[in-house]
């Protein structure tokens, strides 16, 4: 079955810049040039939340891994952390001196990495909301920065036409990939953490191995590629382009699978849900679209069959399979053990859910505390002002 359009969200008043699903797929966040952040409910008849706070275009949004926070970056040079509820309260991070283009949580939800037109990449702690350090070797705007799945590496993409790989601990740039012929708009890690994919204004998508630092795949399109997202299986990549199309690439066979037309005008952003059964896209037509992936169920079966029998479609398919450590191997072993581990898996799931819940509660507590701190500071400032004014009045009287 081909991917199909599932839902259509209208409410933004300018180009949509960024989309992201929450962990449970109940919510979808989007940012827009209209300075608003929208949280859409995937359940029918549930109203959307519009969060107002940024003073200028919202360039990027992302849910925290637990789904209890949303981070956004804006042209107003700030990063905000929101609690996605009716109140829509937020706290502000200030350290960049220009537009913030990208926000990304580490997979443990403890750190945030941001990228900006001030040519730096910055890392923050989420709970203390403290700025930790800057990575500053790019010589032009930085459009995108992402943590690796294990949180040890950071990758960044810039208008200086390079993609840089950083070691988070040593804060050193380990490697610069310089093969792009134009600005690099977007970059992300393959779910295995062994590869990265980058999209650029030279109409290409490139996939590199980060262990060998060599180019694995190169897809030549005929329009600027604005955004990309890996399917959680690691076997597919979806892209959003200026020619208004979304394209789904089959990474195992190194070919284009689908071209989807839905947006009028440039498709600006795209993201798979955490389970991979849906993906969302946004465009300069102010629309947010949600698509049913459809292709994975059938394709997983086929991929598993070819894996088990050891046949490969062609040589390249096979080498890439081993180079990319795709999630297929995991899938295969899981199905064989499923009977034996069913109970154990259920226990693990409920434990994971409990932990998830505790983490979420912590997130909310941290947010509440920091909002209270902000209010306290405001009150203290007001108090100080009053005292100073009184002082002045007394001085005037005595003089």
UniProtKB/TrEMBL annotation:
Keywords: Coiled coil, Repeat, WD repeat. InterPro entries: WD40/YVTN_repeat-like_dom_sf, WD40_PAC1, WD40_repeat_CS, WD40_repeat_dom_sf, WD40_rpt, WDR55/POC1. The keyword tRNA processing does not apply. It comes from the Eukaryota. SUPFAM superfamilies: WD40 repeat-like. PANTHER family: POC1 CENTRIOLAR PROTEIN HOMOLOG A, WD REPEAT-CONTAINING PROTEIN 55. Belongs to the WD repeat POC1 family. This is POC1 centriolar protein homolog A. The gene is Poc1a.
